[in-house]
Specification:
InterPro entries: Gln-synt_C (IPR040577), Gln_synt_N (IPR008147), Gln_synth/guanido_kin_cat_dom (IPR014746), Gln_synth_cat_dom (IPR008146), Gln_synth_gly_rich_site (IPR027303), GS_Type-3 (IPR052725), GSIII_N (IPR022147)
Radius of gyration: 28 Å
GO molecular function: glutamine synthetase activity
Protein name: Glutamine synthetase
Distance between the termini: 22 Å
Organism: Spirosoma fluviale
Number of helices: 25
CATH class of the largest domain: Alpha Beta
CATH topology of the largest domain: Creatine Kinase, Chain A, domain 2
Structural class: alpha+beta
CATH architecture of the largest domain: 2-Layer Sandwich
Strand content: 5-15%
Oligomer: single chain
Family: Belongs to the glutamine synthetase family.
């Protein structure tokens, strides 16, 4: 047991759950204690400053520099009192990660003395190097200037750096010197603003008291956990985030015993730890459980305003990675880190709420409220129908490409699930012009067990195979990848719904101008919308081959390749939609398309390089050494006159030779495909070559390597096996 794998296993087997000290206060006493929230602002700011800041947050207004100076002073006072020594503009560039540059809370006077300093100008604006972040051709390499700008709608927070103190993190947008967005947050904020205006205008037909609509989000985060020592013993996990090789263990998820099972002690301690820290940061995480695959888990929050929810999810992922180190664990956010078991998603639960406390996607039995509910429901369905390919583009990535349609995630076909009751309601609307929303009488199961309280049944089941499913008072977009920044998807979803609501208002106003009665005009418009978009509704099994065939007959797209999906962003109709909603201009959309293609190419390229290195330097070399051992054994048997006994060993020798030859030829062909792709200057064509010619070599090489794992002596195999990685205790 001299190889690195067994050393890592010896370390992993000695691990125990790390004790976690529970807070002595109640959750309500420490929740948000590390955030510069409304309560802190009210205590530290003058009434005038507090009013102007909250008005700016609620109305998307601007905060003048004088108020910014007061806010900056209050922030510094609050942060330093809690042990902060530095501050940073915390932003989300198009790398897919968060970014920060720390500056100290002091300056040097002309007399050489250090004084605490944090002005409003530093709060409002900072200047990171824009040329060092992806910009998709918006900037030349030698043009470095870019700006981060404070987003007051997302509270500043303190990040604990361990022994190094704390840092005040200020959520910010990131733009280029010429004003284009270089981040995920800026277009998202514009999309949310567009939806607010469009949805509020439509709400005014039903209730004049509604003056603001806020989209809400609850992203359920799936992830895998592995032992830290075993993680570093797998170069593919370290470099690519997923295992490029690995034979399925005898026991995986087939017994279905891991889902909602008892959480392993080490993982539970890690969960408790990051949940405590999340609560301090104002992140309302409330659900934890085992997922379907061994080693897979989920954390879910309470609903929040979309911008804040996206910030919190990005922060949560960063926090989980840091906390896992304390527990000698590593968190894997890759969509498909292990072949043959479930991949991970980030289910985006989305809805819209009004300033009057109404969920616009909550059914009602009252006629006026029912018509309002159907108005928003049908417009969302039509928006998804008309822009299904754009929504598909928003979830495209190299990682998610491994997961979509793999019988654990929705297919690449975008469809909408409403449930039997709502579908019948819309059918009645179309055929009878009747608007009746049945919330469903309380239906109780009769269990025949007197001691068990009556259990209430919803009026429709859920469909986990649907990419975009209505789940009672919200839509759940299940197709988003676990490593993704939800801002990309939320930008598209809110933009297309805003655009559709604008169209609805235009159509309705035209009818009202002709003297039609409002309620009848609305019903007629909804009937027409539903008739033209109902083909996207699907209630059945999204995993079935029959659905693929039926979807094709319906004319629904099935875009499996990420480069092909991403191309939808730069189609004329997509560019026009982003332009008229004010979310992004043509240059910003085209730059993102270029960035996502480059990201895809680089991810596949890294996987290819890792695969070639492991195959030749680890697997083939090990197989040949083992083959030499077997050859010596066979030779000894023949010399002893045991020719028949040597035959099974010779068969294994032949199998190893055959598989090694296939692997070697496959790796050589893959390298040539990579060289061919790299010589193509057009990014779009290069991405297509990586998606087809380079990736096409992955599965054949993997098949041979995984077969060798079954043949080579366990004592000699160099890579940590699935049975060792997946079952953390």
């Amino acid at each position: 047991m001299s190889n690195f794998r067994f050393k890592a296993l010896e370390v992993a087997q000695t691990r125990h759950a790390v004790p976690v000290a529970a807070p002595t206060e109640r959750v309500g006493d420490f929740f948000g204690s590390y955030t510069f929230n409304s309560e802190v602002m009210r205590a530290l700011l003058s009434p005038e400053a507090y009013l102007k800041v909250t008005e700016a947050i609620n109305t998307n207004g601007q905060i003048d520099r004088n108020i910014a100076d007061e806010v900056a002073g209050a922030m510094k006072s609050w942060a330093t009192s809690k042990g902060a020594t530095h501050y940073t503009h915390w932003f989300q560039p198009l790398t897919g990660e968060t970014a920060e540059k720390h500056d100290a809370f002091f300056d040097i006077t002309v007399e050489g003395k250090a004084v605490e300093k944090f002005k409003g100008s530093a709060l409002v604006q900072q200047e990171p190097d824009a040329s060092s972040f992806p910009n998709g051709g918006l900037r030349n390499t030698f043009e470095a200037r870019g700006y981060t700008g404070w987003d007051p709608s997302s509270p500043a927070f303190l990040m604990d750096n361990g022994a190094g103190g704390k840092t005040l993190c200020i959520p910010s947008v990131f733009i280029s010197y010429t004003g284009e967005a270089l981040d995920y947050k800026t277009p998202l904020l514009k999309a949310l603003n567009a939806l607010d205006k469009a949805a509020t205008a439509v709400c005014q037909y039903f209730d004049r008291n509604i003056t603001k609509v806020t989209p809400t989000l609850g992203p359920e985060q799936e992830y895998f956990v592995v032992d830290r020592a075993l993680f570093y013993a797998r170069p593919d996990l370290v470099l690519a985030g997923r295992t490029v090789f690995g034979h399925a263990p005898a026991r995986g998820q087939q017994l279905e015993d891991h889902y909602f099972g008892s959480i392993p002690p080490r993982v539970n301690a890690f969960m408790v730890d990051f949940e405590f820290e999340s609560m301090k940061l104002g992140m309302p995480v409330r659900t934890r459980h085992n997922e379907v695959a061994p080693g897979q888990f989920e954390v879910a929050p309470t609903f929040e305003e979309v911008n804040l929810a996206v910030d919190h999810n990005a922060l949560l992922m960063d926090l989980m990675e840091k906390i896992s180190e304390k527990h000698n664990l590593k968190v894997l956010f890759h969509e498909k880190p292990f072949a043959g078991v479930n991949g991970s998603g980030k289910h985006n639960n989305w809805s819209m709420g009004t300033n009057t406390g109404v969920n616009l996607l909550a059914p009602s039995t009252k006629p006026k409220e029912s018509l309002r509910f159907l108005t928003f429901l049908v417009n969302v369905v039509k928006a998804v129908h008309d822009n299904a390919d754009l929504l598909r583009a928003s979830i495209a990535s190299a990682g998610n490409e491994h997961r979509l349609g793999a019988n654990e995630a929705p297919p690449a076909i975008v469809s909408v699930f409403l449930g039997e009751a709502l579908t019948q309601t819309l059918n009645d609307l179309e055929t009878k012009s009747e608007v009746t929303v049945n919330k469903g009488d309380n239906v109780y199961y009769k269990l025949g067990l007197n001691r068990i309280p009556s259990l209430m049944r919803d009026n429709t089941d859920r469909n986990r195979t649907s990419p975009f499913a209505f789940t009672g008072n919200k839509f759940e977009f299940r197709a988003v990848g676990s490593s993704a920044n939800s801002a990309s998807t939320m930008t598209v979803l809110n933009a297309i719904v805003a655009d559709q609501l604008h169209k609805f208002k235009f159509d309705l106003d035209a009818r009202l101008a002709r003297g039609e009665k409002k309620e009848l005009a609305i019903v007629d418009i909804l009937k027409d919308y539903y008739a033209n978009s109902k083909r996207i509704l699907f209630e059945g099994n999204g995993y079935s081959d029959e659905w693929v065939e039926e979807a094709a007959n319906r004319g629904l797209s099935n875009i499996k390749s990420s480069p092909e999906a991403l191309g939808v962003f730069v189609q004329p109709e997509s560019l026009a939609l982003f332009e008229r909603t004010g979310v992004m201009n043509h240059a910003e959309v085209e730059s993102r398309y270029e960035i996502e293609l480059e990201k895809y190419i680089k991810n596949v390229q890294i996987e290819s390089r890792v695969m070639g290195d492991l195959a030749m330097n680890h697997v083939v070399s090990t197989a040949l050494k083992y083959q030499n051992k077997l050859a010596e054994t066979a030779r000894n048997l023949v010399e002893l006159g045991m020719t028949a006994e040597a035959e099974p060993i010779k068969d294994i020798l032949r199998e190893i030779s055959t598989r090694v030859i296939v692997i070697k030829k496959g790796v050589e062909a893959m390298i040539e495909s990579r060289k061919k792709a790299n010589n193509v200057t057009d990014t779009r064509e290069r991405a297509k070559l990586y998606a087809t010619e380079v990736k096409n070599h992955f599965d054949p090489i993997r098949y041979e390597v995984d077969k060798l794992e079954e043949v080579v002596d366990d004592e000699d195999w160099p890579l940590v096996k699935y049975r060792e990685l997946l079952f953390v205790k």
